[in-house]
Amino acid sequence: MEQFFQQLLNGLFQGSIYALIALGYTMVYGVLRFINFAHGDVFMLGAFTAFGLHKWLGPTFAAIPWPVSLALTLLISMVVCAVLGMVVERLAYRPLRNRPRLNVLITAIGVSLFIEYTGQLAFGATQRPFPELIPRTAIANTGGLTISIAQVVVLATTVLLLVGLRFIVMKTKMGLAMRALSLNPTASTLMGVNNGVVISFTFGLGSALAAAGGILYASLYPSIEPFMGVQPGLKAFVAAVLGGIGNIPGAALGGLIIGITETLVKGYSQNVGIPSGYSEGVAFVILILILVFKPSGLLGKVEREKV
Amino acid sequence: MKRYSAQIALIVALAISLGVSLVSDNIDAYYLDIALNVGINIILAVSLNLVNGHTGQFSLGHAAFMAVGAYGASIFTLEASQQLIPMLGGPSAFATGTAFLIALVIGGLCAAICGWLVGMPSLRLRGDYLAIVTLGFNEIVRVILQNTSGDGPFGGPLGLKGIPPHSSFFWVFALAAICVYVVASMVNSTYGRGFLAVRDDEVAAGSMGINTVRYKVTAFVTGSFFAGLAGGLYAHLRTTISPEGFNFLKSFDIVVIVILGGMGSTAGVVLAAILLTVLNEFLRDAEEYRMIVFSLLLIIMMIVRPQGLLPSLPFLNRKKKSA
Questions:
Q1: How far is B307 from chain A (nearest CA, A)?
Q2: Could you give the CA distance from residue A212 to residue A79 in angstroms, rounded to a whole number?
Q3: Are A218 and A134 a contacting pair, CB within 8 Å?
Q4: d(CA A177, CA B118)
Q5: Do B147 and A278 touch (CB under 8 A)?
Q6: What are the distances in angstroms from CA A266 to CA A148, A222, A249?
Q7: Is the Cβ pair A109, B207 closer than 8 Å?
Q8: Rounded Cα–Cα distance for residues A29 and A50 (Å)
Q9: Rounded to the nearest 5°, which phi and psi values hold at B241?
Q10: Do B299 and A111 lie within an 8 Å CB cutoff?
Q11: Shortest CB distance from B299 goes to which of A92, A275, A277?
Q12: Cβ-defined contact of B252 to A103 (cutoff 8 Å)
């Protein structure tokens, strides 16, 4: 029983990061109707930006309390990645704005691989230890459950970012424009929305969340490499589809479900004699099931296709 | 005469591949290897083009079907060929060849069955969803193969080794020619027009009475079958296979060929398979730049020339829309 709750908790922490990445997919999809394949790679770039910052400013960061340096690291990396996301949108996706969706998807795959392999060239293919931004010491040990400070901070930061995002989307003018654009791009232009700016903003926001996800992920699993974004990126995408793509609470819910299921499968598969390596495939099995039985996702709306 | 031009082209191609095969001992092993890779990539790309280009379903998991074919064919060769060859009249060129052909077809059929299993449920999806599901299927196949036990028939993470090198110039190019012929004549037949109808507008095709699911599954199963054949050829060329060799990047390589050649253009795809395989050889010394070049190529193609290198040719491709 204790083991079950421990697994559940670990799944919750893991799932919260998936949720954070899934939000980026969902936002871009909601506004532009295409899967930004390169999202997982922005996640990687976020972790590497934090890594670089700490290499550069290490002594300064060591002198100030960790919550301050963490906030600074998060903020700077999020800004850097937001700018990168906007640049990618400008160079690769904007020229394809009115082309078939598949062309954009193919470009996105190209962008993703381009970032990964350029990253490999720039950072090297080896795994690097990630600096301890958040102390990894255990705080609670009650009832046989172990929780570390890092895990709590990750969860808290995720919740904070989720609430912040919901505020931006629901209460600000930019959020209103995003929602208008996602409903009908032509009508939103007629109502005075500058679609180009809104799309840029969406990419920036999504990329900033991915960067935060990358840093938090690397704080829990402290080793980084240029391909670290691939698997979390794919799983977060599955989470977005599971929750109903384009739906923000759905992405959060999907992330949690994927994280918890995966951790439970990993924890218990050995009890029934299945190698734990199979847990890598769990997310995709969920994906196929959800797409076959409820393609609009758990919280998504059904869309009718017209000729 | 014009009516039979495709059949004549097929026979000529088969004759040439047999002819070259007879003198292939005189060809430098390095160039022969590149040529065989070209042939295998032609099969892979043309079969993927049937799914992605002609039918408009975007599959990102072609390497998975290749893997199923490669494993199916190799296991047959490793486990059953020894018993089969004496039954076909002892170790002769004919017996080995027949056993190899059976192995390839078994690999192809295994892949086709997988294609059907994945296709039936997931082809109700369209566009980017299907892309992700096939990518997921690619991952599932890799994860399963990797987690099998090392002494089982699949060889676990290390894969299979000691597969006899049966893939000769004749086999590779004869099958490549058959693949091109089958795909081209399928698309150009009355039945095959349905593929293009599904691609151009699925909802409209459906309302005109076309059974869109059946067309999509047919394309998917045929594409998987040829991918399986190519996998078998690949296994019997390399003599070792491992799950990692059939990961997403392998699928990506094939997608790049199809995009460069032009989705829906058989001749373009054949040309692109030749170009990219040779380019791949040139980039072997600069391995770390290879994927950067390929991904940039893909992005630039999409922005500048999404229709691919060649304009549609009247013989192998669908005719251009007349105004």
A1: 10
A2: 10
A3: no
A4: 40
A5: yes
A6: 20, 19, 26
A7: no
A8: 27
A9: -135, 150
A10: yes
A11: A92
A12: no
Task: Compare all CA atoms of chain B with the CA of A304 and give the residue at the minimum distance.
Answer: B203
- Per-residue confidence in pLDDT tens, chain B, 323 aa: 566 777 888 888 888 888 888 777 778 888 899 999 999 999 999 999 999 888 888 888 999 999 999 999 999 999 888 888 888 777 778 888 889 999 999 999 999 999 998 888 767 776 677 888 888 889 889 988 988 877 778 888 888 988 988 888 899 999 999 999 999 888 888 888 888 888 888 888 888 888 888 888 999 999 999 999 999 999 999 999 999 889 888 998 899 999 888 888 888 999 999 999 998 888 888 878 888 988 998 899 888 888 877 765 444 444 444 33
Amino acid at A195: N
Mutate to test the interface with B, among A109, A278, A289 (most CBs of B within 10 A): A109
Contacts of B250 (CB under 8 A, 6+ apart): B62, B63, B66
List for chain A the helix, strand, coil content (%; round to 5).
Answer: 75, 5, 20
Of A35, A113, A238, the CB nearest to B295: A113
Q: Which residues contact A270 (CB under 8 A, 6 or more apart)?
A: A276
**Which of B236, B237, B234 lies closest to B226 in space, CA to CA?**
B234
Closest CB from A95, A107, A285 relative to B140? A285
